[in-house]
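User: I want to check something. If I give you two sequences, will you return the structure for each one separately, not as a complex?

Assistant: Yes, each is folded on its own. Here is the first sequence with its structure:
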Amino acid sequence: MPDTTVYIDGLKGHLPAAVKELLIDRAVVHSAVACAELALSLGHLDPAHEKTARHAPPLFDTLRHMPSEQVLAPSADAWIEAALMAGTLARTQGYAREQRRKLLHDAILFLAAQEAGAALVSRNLRDMDLLLQLRPSARVLLYEVA
């Protein structure tokens, strides 16, 4: 299950070849949370801005080409647990308000992948490391961009 960073890195041409190959060779499920984050980015683009015409179509195409049967929504239990995990980590790590929301999205993606029996693929080393400390049995593939 790709984290939102995977889609963005792919669109920018920054996704490492090994991660690309892994996603091509495996059955991929998508998280409704990552879809929402992509859609939020698409909706946030200003139609009058000169770069919107270049950035909007790839985001739209990414969302449009995800088969709906492969997009999974997290359960209510996952949302509650993610909120508890994110709140606890935000408090213990001294996260600011905007960081808390991002951490909540990361936590729900993290748990959604676990519910689906999938490994989460992400570039977000810091937050995923913290989440893995709370649930070390989770399967997460972390990568860095050169």
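And separately, the second sequence with its own structure:
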Amino acid sequence: MFSIGITFIVSITIFLLTLDAPIDNSFAQQNILESMQSIPVQAQSASGLPIKLSIPKINIVASIIQVGLTKDSTMGVPKTPTDTAWYDQGPRPGDIGSAVIDGHYGWGNGISAVFDNLSDLKPGDVIYVEDDKSQTKTFIVTNSRDFDPLADASTVFTSTDNKAHLNLITCEGIWNKTKKSYSKRLVVFADLKP
């Protein structure tokens, strides 16, 4: 059995996918931590900590764990195929800015991963995030986009329009055994319902 982890690096922004084996992510390594830390964090938030993600269209009800940066300055990922992970150095879902949640795809050995069907989401589909204050925020999918693993993806982690966004990230495409990576990254963009 192999486990797949998604790592997302923002510098000139790089996306990488790793397994348990190390991958060389030295490209722009010196700027990664600075870039991730430049994402504005709200000191006082009206939103609670996100604990549950629900997407009725693709039958997802998943726990949300909190992750920060790993020791190699990449975004943390959930340890299990069924959980999702919120990047806690950015905005909480429902706060101004781009909240980011990642989840696994293509776990292997016939085991389903939480975001295996994320690509089925279309504009207008609904995403719910429940927080630890028993409040549920509703987000509406606006679009989705495939990224090359080395593409600039700064729009995933940042926004300047003073609105609340939720961006869901996973991998897709073809598995490359040599690189231990999928060929694409999928991001589903959603906006807080007024």
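Because they were folded independently, the notes below concern the second chain alone. Helices lie at 29-37, 154-157. The longest strand covers residues 164-176.
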